[in-house]
Amino acid sequence: MPTFGPAPTPAPISLPRDGSVPYLHRIETTQKVAFLTIDDGVVKHPEAAALLRAAHVPVTLFLTTDAVRDDPDYFKPLIDAGAVVEAHTISHPDLRGKPYATQKRQICGSADKLAAWYGRRPVLFRPPFGSEDATTRRAAADCGMKASFMWRETVDKGKVRYQEGKRVQPGDIILMHFRPAFVKDFLAALRAIRRAGLTPALLEDYVR
Ligand SMILES: [Zn+2]
User: Fold this and answer.
1) Which end of the chain is more exposed for a tag (fewer CB within 10 A), N or C?
2) How do residues 110-121 score in pLDDT, each as one tens digit?
């Protein structure tokens, strides 16, 4: 298990409030931090909570409510271990090109359900497949979201894939999923952050 020094005091970025959320691939910062995000919630690996507790790192979970509704309680020990739950729609559709009402129902509906389950209403959003349009950004703002997030690195089957270069950069957002290889993926992500001389930080601390 990689170990990290304390994360720096967060210097949050300011986001525009103009009725449309920004769509960010990374946090514009020179602080030596990276952000680990874990999506969907389909495979509920029995070791995830213990792993998160042992790692002492913050993570953001973009949960699809249809994927977690069979066992919402599974995620409560993860939240106790430092995970923060954010919105990722109800049924994981490709939102691009969909009517405003459909997009708004997917975003607001998932945020409302997550709030009911976990006692905190999400303020961040990730569109399924990273696919979105101007309507998504407007609907997300109308649902109370502050920002919408893509990613710079993905982790699957224990392997980190980079969109650019071979190293995690300060402010990068890393994407993994609740999959059978959860343990391998989580450790691979932490090792990549460690190798880059960065510390995991909480995405929510960097957006005002
Ligand atoms: Zn997803």
Assistant:
1) C
2) 999 999 999 999
